[in-house]
Amino acid sequence: MLINGSQFLDRVDQLHHNIWLNGEVVNGPLSTHSVFKGILNSKSKLYDLQHDDEHKELFKGYSEPNGEEYSFSFHQPKSKEELVRRGKATTIWARDSLGMMGRSPDYINSAIMCLGSGAEFFSNGGKEFGTSINSVYNHAKRNDLSFTHTFINPQVNRSLLHYETDENIIAAKVIDETDKGIIIKGARLLATQGGITDEILVLPSGGNYIEGEYIYGFVIPSDTKGLKFLCREAFNYSDSSFDHPLASRYEETDSVVVFDHVLVPWNRVFLYKNHQVAMNFINETGMYHYLQYQAVCRQIVKTECILGLAEKIVDIIQIQQYQHIQDKVNEIIIGLEIMKSLKVASEVQGTVNNYGTYTPSIQPLSTAVQYYTKFYPRLMEIIQLLSSSGIISIPTEKDFQSEIRDDLNQYLQGANADAVERVKTFRLAWDLSMSAFGSRQTQFERFFFGDPVRLAMGSYNHYDKQPFVKDISQFLNLEKGKL
Questions:
Q1: Are the CB atoms for 68 and 1 separated by under 8 Å?
Q2: Residue 295, CA distances (Å) to 108, 117, 299, 482 in order
Q3: Are 81 and 58 in contact (CB under 8 A)?
Q4: 106, 43 in Cβ contact below 8 A?
Q5: What pLDDT, on the 0 to 100 scale, is given for residue 166?
Q6: What is the pLDDT of residues 433-474, one digit of tens each?
Q7: Structural domain spans, the chain
Q8: Alpha-carbon span 425 to 316, nearest angstrom
Q9: What CATH homologous superfamily does 5-280 map to?
Q10: Which residue has the higher pLDDT, 452 or 61?
Q11: What was the pLDDT predicted at 206?
Q12: Which pLDDT value is given to residue 167?
């Protein structure tokens, strides 16, 4: 089914979650909690958009054999046209948050779609595992579920030779198995929106933790007994959309996930102690292809909005005639066009995988993701440079409601904007590039798919360079005998 915003909020409020924040357990409905209500209300608007007549051609039209509709984010594209259509829907969702919501529902829903569509592959580890992921996928699709995820182990000791002992369990591992399921103990990083989604997807981490009791993949409800979410400090310091235009709406929170003897039922386990399946399921199912595709669609929208903000700043203080200003804004334009071109290349160069999924080409997407890790911090620097002292002179909403309002109106107006519009614009620039929320966004984009150096190593090692080496060798051979 296609749920609406109210149904989403009602369902999340009914979770018996175990969320810790500022040293206290979170009680009461999440949708009214000071930390979570902003992001939850923003997500609820996305679910409402699924029922918007203006966009019905993108969000509707996907249905089960019984005629029941389901979300575009769970649909398995089988052609380039269906992939492009999916990208357009993702773009509309991303625009609603200016691209700031890193974990909109379609992100992990894309992974669930790929895993479920590739259920046959997981049957290589046992028929029951293929059945499990197919069941998880259909359950998510029928109920329009939302997910968080965790793929990373805690960073206690990152040396290559470090292994943990049973007496000092840190990285989540299987400590027992019963006829009911597997028992998990330990911790995982870094669940964005941890505890405030319907369910959580858990996949094996790489490195030393790809053997034995560390090989597992499963999906469980976020309020499963023994599951705890330990949240970092929240960055939405007030409800004021004037003072914190982004943080008040899109602060997602990040959490450590603790598994305290969590029982994962067998019908929720789709990967277990099979090294070959663990090492190959990402490429086989196209999961990373779709996660990166969703991310690039969002990053394009985010860059468009940064361009719009940059030009608005330039216009308000009338600095567009300076060449160095035009050069800086043009950097944004160049980066935006690079990202858009790589997205199109991934669509055009896509192929159908072994399970009928039209999969976007990974190389353009990987290139875009790697490019953005370096480009995004530069975008923030450009916003800071364009804003100059304006990004510091930003009074609050209450200042404009006080007796100093006349002074603010007189001295903080812009060439093409009154004081309120000017300050709101520069507060947006501040919340994007300098606030706690903005700094987290920069770090988020910098490490979106992991360590940028490792991403570069992977790209180098897997890129087929030999045809070009051969060209050079052939050219040099033409000159043999001519020293």
A1: yes
A2: 11, 20, 6, 52
A3: no
A4: no
A5: 59
A6: 999 999 999 999 999 888 899 889 989 998 999 999 999 999
A7: 5-280, 286-469
A8: 9
A9: Butyryl-CoA Dehydrogenase, subunit A, domain 2 (2.40.110.10)
A10: 452
A11: 67
A12: 66
For residues 35-58, average pLDDT: 93
| Residue entry with tokens 């379609």 | 106
Q: ∠ CA(108), CA(114), CA(115), 5° rounding?
A: 90
- Reply yes or no on whether the pLDDT at 161 is more than 50: no
Q: Which residue has the higher pLDDT, 468 or 66?
A: 468
Going by pLDDT thresholds of 50, 70 and 90, the confidence category of residue 160 is: very low
Nearest to 439 by CA among 240, 304, 247: 247
Beta bridge partners, 184, equal: 174, 262
| pLDDT for res 191 | 95
Whether 142 and 382 have beta carbons less than 8 Å apart is answered as no
In the beta sheet, which residues pair with residue 228?
258
Q: What is the dihedral of CA 339, 93, 221, 132, to 10 degrees?
A: -60
Encoded amino acid at 21, one letter = L
Residue type, position 181, single letter: G
Q: Say which residues have a Cβ less than 8 Å from residue 4's Cβ, sequence separation at least 6.
A: 44, 47, 48, 50, 51
Kindly state the average pLDDT of the residues 264-274: 97
Left (φ > 0), alpha (ψ -120 to 50) or beta: where does 157 sit? beta
Q: Of 172, 165, 115, 105, nearest to 138 (Cα)?
A: 115
Q: What is the pTM of this model?
A: 0.94
Q: Does domain 286-469 have CATH number 1.10.10.10?
A: no
Which residue type sits at 81?
E
What number is the average pLDDT over the span 115-129? 96
